[in-house]
Amino acid sequence: MARKKISIIGAGNVGATCAHWLAGKELGDIVMLDIVEGLAAGKGLDLYEAAPVGKFDVHLTGTCDYKDTQDSEVVIITSGLARKPGMSRDDLLKANTQIIAEVTGKVMAHSSNPYLIVVSNPLDAMTYAAGKVSGLAKNMVMGMAGILDTARYRAFLAEALNVSVTDIAAVLLGGHGDDMVPLPRYTSVGGVPVTELLDKETIEAIVERTRKGGIEIVNLLKTGSAYYAPAAAAAEMTEAILKDKKRLLPCCAWCDKEYGVNGGFVGVPVILGSGGVEKVIELKLSEQEKNLLDASVLHVKELTKQVDAIL
């Protein structure tokens, strides 16, 4: 039986690292694409030459030609600009909307019904742009953010508690960024509510560090942004789809009546399987949690209005 095909658009740090995670999971043959001549081809060849050592039986290629992505089962979009000194958020939104629109159009010209996983920022708005341009059913388009944010949250909690990261389960809602909504009430350690193990002030400090998790890494690196954890999160979503694992994961997904969003892509817990986003899980929220989520959704909708104006 032929292996499934996964295409990664953008062979920078996130794209190449995502290919590495995916190859290790042996989820399918991988095509990396980048507009920089030789970049994807060189990284693809290097990673394929690691296969005998890593013991993964998948084929990896790199290309500049979208024809090589033909009939992809999953397409992971990492393309886009990073914010540069002097660049406003509006400038970044405009530039990346144009990039995502172009990339999505070229992807769809060669794959009729792929699952799209968007990693580019601003995440929620770029997922909306990909969904609009692709014309795909809403369950086929999703953004990677919640898994990354909860991974940071779980890592910080494990560090504070001196426990295994695997014992911590957590969920969060809302947009990717400063207005995300972590939910300590739905966070547990080996089944024990985290509120029984840490005081309110410590939890709040960890929540705030989670919100600033991306910029903390940017400030440390000085010349780049996070890529190991974002790439791992995109690979986890791909695995859930291709293996029909029915994982309950936080993703940027289309919400209609859920959480009162009334149409929009926003971070929520979903069931992710062979049908893509198979179900949005609607949690009961306190008044404070609902207010925070409403504020986050409002900000996301402001961004998507700008995307509509650009497209």
Descriptive notes:
It contains ten helices and 14 strands. Helix 4 runs parallel beside helix 5 (123-134). A six-stranded parallel β-sheet has the order 3-2-1-4-5-6, with helices on both faces. Strands 7-10-11 form a three-stranded antiparallel β-sheet, with helices on one face. Strands 12-13-14 form a three-stranded antiparallel β-sheet. With 311 residues, the chain is an alpha/beta fold. It folds into two domains: 5-143, NAD(P)-binding Rossmann-like Domain (Rossmann fold, 3-Layer(aba) Sandwich); 146-310, Alpha-Beta Complex (L-2-Hydroxyisocaproate Dehydrogenase, Chain A, domain 2), CATH 3.90.110. Helix content is 44%, strand content 19%. It has helices at 13-25, 39-49, 51-54, 89-108, 123-134, 146-161, 200-211, 213-221, 228-242, 287-310; strands at 5-9, 29-33, 60-63, 74-77, 115-118, 141-143, 168-169, 172-173, 181-182, 188-189, 192-193, 247-255, 264-273, 276-280. Strand 8 (172-173) and strand 9 form a beta hairpin.
Widest sheet, order of strands: 3-2-1-4-5-6
Number of helices: 10
**What's the helix-strand series?**
EHEHHEEHEHEHEEEEEHHHEEEH
| CATH architecture title of the largest domain | Alpha-Beta Complex
Could you report the average pLDDT, rounded to the nearest whole number?
A: 94
Structurally, the number of domains stands at: 2
Report Rg: 19 Å
How are the SSEs ordered, and which strands pair?
Layout: E1 5-9, H1 13-25, E2 29-33, H2 39-49, H3 51-54, E3 60-63, E4 74-77, H4 89-108, E5 115-118, H5 123-134, E6 141-143, H6 146-161, E7 168-169, E8 172-173, E9 181-182, E10 188-189, E11 192-193, H7 200-211, H8 213-221, H9 228-242, E12 247-255, E13 264-273, E14 276-280, H10 287-310
Parallel strand pairs: 1-2, 1-4, 2-3, 4-5, 5-6
Antiparallel strand pairs: 7-10, 8-9, 10-11, 12-13, 13-14
Helix pairs in contact: 1-9, 4-5, 4-10, 5-10, 6-7, 6-9
